[in-house]
Amino acid sequence: MANITRYDPFDLGLEPFDNLFRGFLRPVRLEQDVPQIKMDVKEEENAYRVHAEIPGVKKEDIQVSVEGNSVSISAEVKKESEEKQGEKLLKRERYYGKVARSFALANEIDETNASAKYTDGVLELVLPKKKGGSTKRVSIQ
User: Looking at the whole model, is its pTM more than 0.70?
Assistant: First the structure.
């Protein structure tokens, strides 16, 4: 007995080709993965509290900038060249380079009262909300 199927005029029958090229255009994974800054952002009544994981970075190599409601965090891990005689590197999984992350918050930040602390690979930001940044209502005529 034959199966009855519904005719779809938009089906181009490209499924075999999709499977053939599915992995062809996938991004190539390099052996050195670029680390990402992983964050937790909490909103309190008067401020935002951000915890960002940036392990292996000196606090002097971290930059935080605040403009309006936009926050940018960047860090640079510098490569220290130390070679010992008779030593051969078999595999390197540690990353050296620059990472950055930017995000926007709902309220503008009072950058003059913002504070930052870096302990054990975690950057903690306290970003007070700007006072007087309330929503402006527009009357409809």
Answer: no
